């Protein structure tokens, strides 16, 4: 069995790691991968956006299955291209991937299929004056979202009209988010706790993985600017069995049925960001792939053979699949480069990895790492490592993760020391 994972971050390392745990012992490749994926499989120097080169390589290597990590190739149609060549692949079509690729598409879809979300309006850059006047009549706080992919940075939460009008200008007139901001979605601000729900589907049937919560803000106490994610944990105590039933009935099933009605059944990984409002669960956003760093806590909780699971997704055989999960919890702490999420330093030597071996209770996932010619492990991105602990309880999982973090070091390394605080609060509630 040969499997290709497309991507190069912590999510992709987690995917490669999970596949490597399979009793089928697949040979795993990663394009382009990072220093962590190279320790478990073989890195392939092909861009995730070079579909022709990927297909040619897959054919030459006789790859049995391809799994796509990041959103950019999915939105650009890599799944359609592979399927046109008769190659099995896990992911949604370009049409279905618009659920992430276009906030306006997603909002229209939710309105049409009666899926609960925030009220909204969409405006293009040509409609700036209309958008400005409409925005002026709205209550604050209010949320402005660039329509397209903006690397997780296209959302502005505006607490007053001054911030809102300035944000609208920067998106529509100044083009701060480039082509992603050619349109803007303005939506009402929702209050409550957020959680991430991951659905694996073959287009007809689905399984739901443990819900996770991540920490997007750079600062402790969830303060400061947004990042790609500074840590996560699963399962999220706030996502009770009763709430999950509502999420499935009111959001997941209508979403999958709606995509069938659209003529493009959703296949692969559907990530639904949920806000647990006083009125019930509502959709914050859809993503068409696994989240990062949520993948690093969700995959370690899967007991089933993930190779079989992904093959069933790619071949339409999820019906009746008995997903097995480990008991307990997982938590990951992200170690970031100094300066992240703004300008950050690269090329810093990472020390301490040689003192740590992955176990059934702890794994270090690489996100932004590379090897020097001399064989030294160096930082190469903003989020460098995701250190995951696994334990019978969330507190024990966090303790394991932080014990490992203290052993690792690179100059200016930054990490939050309060990962999991919301989950611990729920655990202590009677």
Q: In words, what does this structure look like?
A:
The chain has 430 residues and is α+β, with helices and mostly antiparallel strands. It has four domains: 2-93, Rossmann fold; 119-188, 2-Layer Sandwich (Dna Ligase, domain 1), CATH 3.30.1490; 193-315, ATP-grasp fold, B domain (D-amino Acid Aminotransferase, Chain A, domain 1, 2-Layer Sandwich), CATH 3.30.470.20; 329-428, Glycinamide Ribonucleotide Synthetase, Chain A, domain 4 (Alpha-Beta Complex), CATH 3.90.600.10. The chain is built from 13 helices and 22 strands. The protein has helices at 10-20, 51-61, 71-76, 78-84, 94-101, 103-112, 128-136, 161-173, 241-261, 295-298, 306-315, 394-405, 421-428; strands at 2-7, 27-32, 42-43, 65-68, 89-90, 120-124, 142-146, 155-158, 183-188, 193-201, 206-208, 213-214, 217-219, 223-226, 231-234, 268-277, 280-287, 329-336, 362-366, 369-371, 377-379, 383-391. Strands 3-2-1-4-5 form a five-stranded parallel sheet, sandwiched between helices. The chain has a five-stranded antiparallel sheet with strand order 12-15-18-22-19. Helix 5 crosses helix 6 (103-112). It is globular.
